[in-house]
Amino acid sequence: MSAIDRAFAHDLASSLAAGPQQVIALVNSVVQALSGVRTVTWLAVAPDHSVTHRIGTSDKVNFPIGGFDPIDDGAWNRRIFGDKRAVVGNTPEQMRQFIPETDQLVAMGYGATLCAPIIIGGEVRGVLCALGDAGILTPDLLAEIDTILPIAALVFTFNGISER
What we know:
This protein has a single domain (6-157), classed as Beta-Lactamase (2-Layer Sandwich), CATH 3.30.450.40. 36% of the residues lie in helices and 26% in strands. It is built from 6 helices and 6 strands, in the order ααβββαβααββα. It has a 6-stranded antiparallel β-sheet with strand order 3-2-1-6-5-4. The mean pLDDT is 95.
């Protein structure tokens, strides 16, 4: 028995050789295979820690690559960058505690959002966000995402990935 599925290991090796967007696409496919997850987005932290910007997405229409959000003292940023903990909103009400754009997300049909910091060397280098229907963020799904985060972290080892 292998500790890691051989087919996945092969796909990961091929993706790593091809570049960060291929790794993002591979991880997106794994996360979107989880029950209820419809969309995955990726944020990178600028080297000066002033902003985040979207570097990956499974939905380029509604969540296009690019754009910047300041790293300020808002609840989402305090949770991700201060506490270095995930933002877990399993209902719109829980999402509103951290995400000012909750009403727009609900209008798009989302009722749950997970934003998990990707930490390398004690520093938040990026964030992996998964969106889906209300109630999907069960302990089992959160545990599955936790097993994927170290693989997702490989994206942030590519030179220049966090540049604006």
